[in-house]
Amino acid sequence: LMNRIDGCTYKEIAELLDIGVKAVEKRMGIALEGLRGVIRDS
Questions:
Q1: What is the Cα–Cα distance from 35 to 16, expressed in whole angstroms?
Q2: Share of the chain residues as helix, strand and coil, in percent rounded to the nearest 5
């Protein structure tokens, strides 16, 4: 949500959450794949 709605970059999210940019990328990928599955199954 921070990226898609608030318009934060992955770098900004990483700094806010005190994690690496790669971790943000991975978590976004997992979240988006989960959403695709929900949409596909509905």
A1: 23
A2: 70, 0, 30
User: Crossing angle, helix 21-41 and helix 10-17, to 10 degrees?
Assistant: 110
Q: Which of 17, 34, 42 is nearest to 3 (CA)?
A: 17
Exposure string (b/e) for 11-42, b if CB count within 10 Å is 16 or more? Answer: eebbeeeeeeeeebeeeeeeeeeeeeeeeeee
Q: How far is CA 42 from CA 8, 18, 37, 39, in A?
A: 29, 35, 9, 5
pLDDT tens per residue, range 9-24: 999 999 999 999 999 9
Tell me the residue length of the chain. 42
